[in-house]
Amino acid sequence: ADQEMRLDPMASPALTDSLEGLPPAVVLTAEFDILVDEGRAYAEQLKAAGVSVSYRDFAQQMHGFFAMPAALPAAGKAMSWLAQEMDRHLNPTERKDVVVVGAGFSGMYQLYKLREQGLDVQVFEAGSDVGGTWYWNRYPGARVDIESMAYSFSFSDELQQEWQWSEKYSPQPELLKYAQHIADRFDLKSDIAFDTRVASAHFDEDANEWLVTTECGRRVRAQHLVMATGVLSASKTPDITGRENYKGDTYRTGLWPKEGVDFTGKRVAVIGTGSSAVQAIPLIAEEADELVVYQRTATFTTPALNHALDKNDADAIKANYAEYRAKQRLNVLGVVDERSMDRTMDVTAEERDRRFTAGWESGILPGMLFQFADLQVEQEANDQISEYIRDRIRDTVKDEQTAQDLLPTDYPYGTKRPCIDTNYYETFNRDNVSLVNLRRTPIETITATGIKTAEGEREFDAIVYATGFDAMTGPLLRVDIRGRGGVKLTDAWNDGPRSYLGIAIHGFPNLFTITGPSSPSVLSNMLVSIEQHVDWVSDCIKWMNAEGKATIEPSDSAEQEWAEHTEQLANMTLYPKANSWYMGANVPGKPRMFLAYVGGVGTYRLICDQVAAAGYRGFEAA
């Protein structure tokens, strides 16, 4: 009977009285197929009957073309489309207006701003709580290096008036509490899925939507996708021979245990001397019986001079926060301190020394670089400030060889991330601390019990890897992001990241990156840059809805012009002279290019505002 029914010409579902109640259908037709009209009519009938249907006609194709992938390129596309649509119908998806990836400061603020527009938003967060950077980085001494009063949100006057910072530079636990306070105050957690890592995000050209899939299989479709994944959130796995052989305890500063670590009585090795290590080493030294620091590249760092924050000083800033914030937004780094316009070599040696000393004693991150206008663009000027810092290192570290090894000599000051510290150089005067210069005695292998160099093996109870991050691009590229035509972001950025304004990427419609590559980002007070980016993206989405636009993306020419502009600016500075993570140099195989916009926070803001005011010049909206 079943065979007879299949052979009956009247058994076509298109001839039935009603198609209501049928399961979802996928209908494919070919332009030169004799059955093309019947197939199209069937899809229309299904749709009219309320059946969920996917329909696509393939131009210039014949009957059965999809069965010939070896001969017809369109066959592969057809089969991929069939598989995609069948999967979509078999595995129902949720629908949202916007998906935001990441619940650090940028993700939380993006959720807040989009809720103001009445949009339905889903945030995915890999961690168990909000906080982003300040959730994951719990290593000893972790704290902000921008003054707390400046490193805070301005979007809510009630928030900035009620929150009380305890220190000039707040420690990680307090920064995490601040993030949690924001989430609770504005009821943000109800739209955040914690412990949920996004595996992929693919753009559906037929629906003009992003299909976002998590590692646990949850699927959400949304018109817009905002990557608020941070710029220093992809902790870099140490590429050291024998690492897997070590039997002792191992830690990474970027993935520190929640419960903390007690190094009392332990023999500890720290590999790396970047920003995280500069903060962690002095505190680990206070606990450990023995601490050995393995240094490849010496670091420039200046005193933080951290202290308890005087309430009267904080209240004075709060009383005039509007003017304070206005200065931040137009400042080159997003702070309130101003850079001198004087040239280094135009003043006397005595005046240079006086200003450098003032910068050293200022206790702020840009304190020294703001003493003269040309310190990051003129080599002769930079030589002066670099040598001043080296003299201070020599004055501080008692052992002559250790002091010599701690002197940065192969890159200009400020071209790698400057550090501020509490007793970093002084720590090397302790009897239980020693330094290994890896330029002179490189690590040969990690053994089961310790670290072996050309000078022999040393045993340790614990090894701390302070080896940094795959900065800026790493957090984006670890998600399988695919745009128009199924193009992977990893392929689009094979020769280095390209974007327009650091916000959007050609070929990836409705995808926005907060503080992404080629924006000020890591060269700024991140909270100021986050607010500016989120405000801009939110306004763009609001404009699209008001204008009835389904998609927006930068033109290829606008993206190329921005890339040339950012490269030209970087090449006018000393930044390219350093093998820094600013250049992607800390990750083997990563394309070498400067990853941030050096024109300054204020200038960049004006450019972004002009683009929006001109109807989103450089973007293609449809």
What characterizes the major β-sheet? 8 strands, mixed
Would you identify the regions where 5 or more consecutive residues have pLDDT less than 50?
none
In angstroms, what is the radius of gyration?
A: 28 Å
Into which percent range does the helicity of residues fall?
25-40%
How many domains comprise the coordinates?
3
SS element count, helices: 19
CATH class of the largest domain: Alpha Beta
Count the beta strands.
Answer: 22
CATH topology annotation of the largest domain: FAD/NAD(P)-binding domain
Q: Can you characterise this structure?
A:
It contains 19 helices and 22 strands. By secondary structure, it is of the alpha/beta class. The protein has three domains: 2-86, no CATH class; 94-234 and 471-621, FAD/NAD(P)-binding domain; 243-465, no CATH class. Helix 4 (105-116) packs parallel to helix 17. The chain is elongated.
Summarize the structure.
By secondary structure, this protein is an alpha/beta fold.
Describe the secondary structure blueprint for this structure:
Blueprint: H1 2-7, E1 25-30, H2 36-48, E2 53-58, H3 73-90, E3 94-101, H4 105-116, E4 121-124, H5 133-136, H6 157-162, H7 172-185, E5 192-193, E6 198-204, E7 209-214, E8 219-227, E9 249-252, E10 267-271, H8 275-287, E11 290-295, E12 301-303, H9 311-319, H10 321-330, H11 349-360, H12 379-396, H13 400-405, E13 419-421, H14 424-427, E14 433-437, E15 443-446, E16 450-453, E17 456-459, E18 462-465, H15 474-477, E19 480-482, H16 489-492, E20 511-513, H17 526-547, E21 552-554, H18 556-571, H19 601-613, E22 619-621
Parallel strand pairs: 1-2, 3-4, 3-8, 4-5, 6-19, 8-20, 9-18, 10-11, 10-18, 11-14, 12-13
Antiparallel strand pairs: 6-7, 7-8, 15-16, 16-17, 21-22
